Amino acid sequence: MIIGILYEINPLNKEKTADEFIKIKNEEYVILSKVDDKVLVVPFEFDKGGKCHLLTSQYSFKNKYEGTYYYIDLNQYPIIKK
After folding, report:
1. For 40-62, b where at least 16 C-beta lie within 10 A, e where not — what string?
2. Which of 6, 8, 57, 69 has its CA 20 to 30 A from that of 16?
3. What does the pLDDT read at residue 11?
4. pLDDT tens digit string along 63-76?
């Protein structure tokens, strides 16, 4: 039980605390959702302060099996730009 509590406080699996990103053909996106064999993505940018901005006017679906997945721990909520 103690190990379970410690795991919840400080997870060993970084993917559980980090946001999921994908790089497809030199373009990078934040993954918002996965549906069947597609992922719903939006492009993003980081400002000088390191805060992530999601460009939500550019939603698109991409093939789930193309591209390279990676994870970034943002440590703060992203700013949504419409």
Report:
1. ebbbbeeeeeeebebeeeeeeeb
2. 57
3. 54
4. 999 999 999 988 88
CB 21 within 8 A of CB 74: no
Q: Which of 57, 61, 9 is nearest to 39 (CA)?
A: 61
Confidence band (pLDDT; 50, 70, 90) for 46? very high
The Cα 58–Cα 82 span in angstroms is: 9
The distance from CA 46 to its chain's CA centroid, rounded to whole angstroms, is 13
Q: Which of 13, 12, 31 is nearest to 21 (CA)?
A: 31
**Cα-trace Rg, the chain:** 15
d(CA 74, CA 67): 21
State the Cα–Cα distance between residues 14 and 49, nearest whole angstrom: 23
